[in-house]
Specification:
The chain is of the alpha+beta class. The chain is built from seven helices and eight strands, in the order αβαβαβαβββαββαα. The protein has a six-stranded mixed beta sheet with strand order 7-6-1-3-2-8, covered by helices on one side. Strands 4-5 form a two-stranded antiparallel ribbon. α5 links the parallel β6 and β7. The two termini are 22 Å apart.
Length: 224
């Protein structure tokens, strides 16, 4: 375990940080604008940033129709895409998760709904819970114009309906590149379920996903 990860856990325990996950009794409204399910199986890519990638990955890897997830970095250059550099908050990177999904089984709009409902708090600027800095910002890195249109439309819808007590601060920017994070970050919540940080910050997100979206929830086991 790196010094930075150990420090993150210590701070979480000492301050008794309680993370308020957006786990309302019912999910937030579905997008009024979405694309229909595809007629045949395929693969599409979505990239989301919403705080520490451990929690975001642990949510999306348990979603029906998601084929694979990868923790990584987006927003900066390849030369600075390492954890030690990203935590300096000088690289323009955000901890992100690449979501490969089957558009015949789940729509981009459904992924957005999960992202805004349980994966993170989209009203926190440059932080999530105990994690502060631009690398923990809320951001959607779109891969095509449809994703850009749907993300912006959904944010406008949620703000107009005042779903959250504060305005959404999520950035919607084009994906220039996605860089895979170090191996020890992949499936971190799965392999470290008793880690205090995972228990406090990430387990509630998984529980909220199961509670709010039972029809989309699937158990997860990493493929060997």
């Amino acid at each position: 375990m790196s010094f930075q990860i150990a420090l993150r856990l210590i701070v979480t325990e000492l301050l008794f940080v309680t993370i308020t996950v957006l786990a309302a009794p019912k999910p937030i409204p579905a997008p009024s604008t979405d694309v229909p399910l595809a007629n045949q199986a395929g693969k599409e890519t979505a990239v989301f940033a919403g705080g520490c990638f451990w929690g975001v990955q642990s949510v999306f890897q348990r979603v029906k129709g998601v084929l694979h997830t990868t923790a990584g970095y987006s927003g900066g250059s390849a030369k600075t895409a390492t954890y030690k550099q990203v935590i300096t908050e000088t690289t323009s990177h955000a901890e992100s998760v690449e979501v490969i999904y089957d558009p015949s089984r789940i729509t981009y709009g459904q992924l957005l709904r999960i992202y805004f409902s349980v994966a993170h708090d989209p009203t926190q600027l440059n932080r999530q819970g105990p994690d502060e800095g631009t690398s923990y910002r809320s951001a959607i890195f779109y891969t095509n114009e449809d994703q850009k249109r749907l993300a912006n439309a959904y944010i406008a819808q949620l703000d107009q309906e005042k779903v959250f007590p504060r305005p959404i601060v999520t950035e919607v920017t084009p994906l220039k590149a996605f860089y895979r994070a170090e191996d020890y970050h992949q499936d971190y919540a799965y392999y470290n379920p008793n880690n205090p940080y995972i228990q406090v910050c990430d387990r509630p997100k998984i529980d909220a996903l199961k509670q709010q979206f039972p029809e989309l929830f699937v158990e997860y086991t990493p493929k060997k």
